[in-house]
Amino acid sequence: MLGLAGAAVAAGLVAAGLGLPAVGGTGAAIVAASDELNLNPAELIEPPLAEKTTILDARGRRIAQFYDQYREVVPLDQVAEVMKTAIISIEDSRFYEHGAIDLEGTLRALARNLQSGGVSEGGSSITQQYVKQVLLNAATTREDQEKALEASYGRKLNELRYAMAVEEKYTKDQILEKYLNIAYFGAGANGVQAAAKRFFGVSAARLNLPQAATLAAAVQLPTSTDPEGGRENRARLLERRNVVLDRMAELGKITTAKAAKAKTAKLGYKGVPQPGGCEASPYPYFCLYVYNEVLNDPSFGKTRALRERSLKRDGLTIKTTLDPRMQAAAEQGIGDWVGPTDNAVAAQALVEPGTGKIKAMAASRKYGNSARRREISYNIVADTHHGGIGGFQAGSTFKTFTLLTALKQGMKADDGFTVGNSYRAPDYAAFTDCAGGQVGDPTHPVTNDEGSPGFKTLRTGTWGSVNTFFMELERRVGLCETVQTAQSLGIKRADGKKLQEYETFTLGINEMDPVTVATAYAALGARGTYCAPLAITQVTGRDGKPTDYRPKCRQALEPQVADATADILSGVFTQGTMSSVGGIGRDAAGKTGTNDDQSSAWFAGFTPDLAGAVSIGDPRGAIAHKLNNVTIGGRYYSAVFGATVPGPIWRDTMIAALRGVEPTAFTPMNSERFDGCGRYCAPLPPVTEEEPDDTATDPTEPVEDSTEPEPDPVVLQ
């Protein structure tokens, strides 16, 4: 009697859900039970499906993708008819004939469940299955996930309430489309489009009969039939596929002959990789930069966690600035000079003047976590804000900021003064940082690594990269003023800490990254217009609406000051430290940089069309592992300077990257304003430490204190 009563109530629920009339005494009991249980439609909250985000290069080609669930939502008209037929045949053959629930199927399942004493057969309609998948996908905790899957009449009742509302809200085709896009097929594929690509390497629109039957077979038991699970799983999937084919023939959807022929086909699973994350990108360092740009941008979410969720679930299409041709040039330029397993690592960034667009980011080591393969697990081309860890001291590339400051203050190209081979601050008050602190240290000598002592001008001091000249030049124009010039061009430490403002600032004591340095030099190529580094140009949401990201630029330098700087720095190629390396066949300017005892080396240069910066150093620790007596790229070097390896990398890269680009000439220097000399024309006789001149009144000369022992010199170039 209890079993009969239970069956009557359950049947009553079904009847009420379908809106069937109550008949006789049993009908009255059914209606009463329905009223008591409040079996009315309940609105289903349908969060947007998790979709993969795609990263594109400047030409619109995919370079990376991010996802929690690999899925591509497609409209129903982009799904093969045979796929629709197969899934309906095996999952809900009366889908277009019944309402929220299939009465026949549910009663059949109910009878079996009552016999077993539990829920052993579902009998769910496609609409109910869609509801279950929505609840499962919306679950944020394990408890919610288990609740969405529990085998209970309570869950089935809730599903029915939601299904009734779904049937009222959507057409049958809309429900089928939603189901096909949310269903999990196994092998990490969510939705029919991802499954078609993962299983067979085709789109959902091109599925054939055996393939469609296979995917329809996978839906009910996606774990035990997951082809990635091994031979037994594949055998179960094949067996289940044949059941689908038989059911399609039984329903008259295909002929028996077609079913028999399709059953002879092999499983055909290809397991097409659908890699995600920067590890799988052909351009991992640029990918890391974009990834961190999103995580740092509040427009993608209020918190970092929400931004990452958006990146992996919101189905964004992110177009970037990366130029594949220039990227190839950067990779080749590095690869010709530095090997992937060398202790020293070269890194390079290319930036477009006037926009700040990052065109390329490359390094000699592969990105990854394998110590055996000597991979690097961080972004060595960028700062900590974009996945880096600290960078290398930029060396004499920072002398450019002192040169700029001198020109801003009215000095001319041939202004100069006499310097010795060693320099000491005249007193402790000789240099003042931007906080007003006195940082000059007369006990701390700086010597020249390259360049001879004597009378040096802005031109010759720069071409020879004379340390003692730039120390005195910085003293004259001001340490803080030099720091401020650098900051106006976006200079900040790669580790995110405050810039070190000591008298050796001009010698590049701060750790930098190639993106930041390249962007600063790009401003010179743009006649003083500084544009912040730009990696993302457009983001399109799942609604198809694009949001454009435009360059953020400002006039950081007077154009004529930038022109004069470019004129002087162009001589580095013809008469300076890069003369042995040579130019690139068009207007170009730049500066070498070598740090104390070759702990690291740089070259930064620019044209009006493209700028780039190259660093090289040992990531095990640049100070402990200097670039002396080393083999790099199969070549032995007793010492590595800026023009030894970084310079040639930059030259080769720029020649290839700019091939086919019409050359743009530098704007000539304003001769009337900057040519010749002004305040500092007359050479002063040099004063050496061996012949101290106690009567000298010029504070530029090094002074030897005979009462103190000679400290070890600091040598930077």
Automatic annotation (TrEMBL):
<dbReference type="GO" id="GO:0009252">
    <property type="term" value="P:peptidoglycan biosynthetic process"/>
</dbReference>
<dbReference type="GO" id="GO:0071555">
    <property type="term" value="P:cell wall organization"/>
</dbReference>
<dbReference type="GO" id="GO:0008360">
    <property type="term" value="P:regulation of cell shape"/>
</dbReference>
<dbReference type="InterPro" id="IPR001264">
    <property type="entry name" value="Glyco_trans_51"/>
</dbReference>
<dbReference type="InterPro" id="IPR050396">
    <property type="entry name" value="Glycosyltr_51/Transpeptidase"/>
</dbReference>
<keyword id="KW-0573">Peptidoglycan synthesis</keyword>
<dbReference type="InterPro" id="IPR012338">
    <property type="entry name" value="Beta-lactam/transpept-like"/>
</dbReference>
<dbReference type="InterPro" id="IPR001460">
    <property type="entry name" value="PCN-bd_Tpept"/>
</dbReference>
<dbReference type="GO" id="GO:0006508">
    <property type="term" value="P:proteolysis"/>
</dbReference>
<feature type="domain" description="Glycosyl transferase family 51">
    <location>
        <begin position="60"/>
        <end position="248"/>
    </location>
</feature>
<feature type="domain" description="Penicillin-binding protein transpeptidase">
    <location>
        <begin position="350"/>
        <end position="617"/>
    </location>
</feature>
<dbReference type="Pfam" id="PF00905">
    <property type="entry name" value="Transpeptidase"/>
</dbReference>
<dbReference type="InterPro" id="IPR036950">
    <property type="entry name" value="PBP_transglycosylase"/>
</dbReference>
<keyword id="KW-0961">Cell wall biogenesis/degradation</keyword>
<feature type="compositionally biased region" description="Acidic residues">
    <location>
        <begin position="688"/>
        <end position="711"/>
    </location>
</feature>
<keyword id="KW-0808">Transferase</keyword>
<dbReference type="GO" id="GO:0030288">
    <property type="term" value="C:outer membrane-bounded periplasmic space"/>
</dbReference>
<keyword id="KW-0378">Hydrolase</keyword>
<dbReference type="InterPro" id="IPR023346">
    <property type="entry name" value="Lysozyme-like_dom_sf"/>
</dbReference>
<comment type="similarity">
    <text>In the N-terminal section; belongs to the glycosyltransferase 51 family.</text>
</comment>
<protein>
    <submittedName>
        <fullName>Carboxypeptidase</fullName>
    </submittedName>
</protein>
<keyword id="KW-0511">Multifunctional enzyme</keyword>
<dbReference type="GO" id="GO:0008658">
    <property type="term" value="F:penicillin binding"/>
</dbReference>
<dbReference type="Pfam" id="PF00912">
    <property type="entry name" value="Transgly"/>
</dbReference>
<keyword id="KW-0328">Glycosyltransferase</keyword>
<dbReference type="GO" id="GO:0009002">
    <property type="term" value="F:serine-type D-Ala-D-Ala carboxypeptidase activity"/>
</dbReference>
<feature type="region of interest" description="Disordered">
    <location>
        <begin position="682"/>
        <end position="717"/>
    </location>
</feature>
<keyword id="KW-0121">Carboxypeptidase</keyword>
<keyword id="KW-0133">Cell shape</keyword>
<keyword id="KW-0645">Protease</keyword>
<dbReference type="GO" id="GO:0008955">
    <property type="term" value="F:peptidoglycan glycosyltransferase activity"/>
</dbReference>
<comment type="similarity">
    <text>In the C-terminal section; belongs to the transpeptidase family.</text>
</comment>
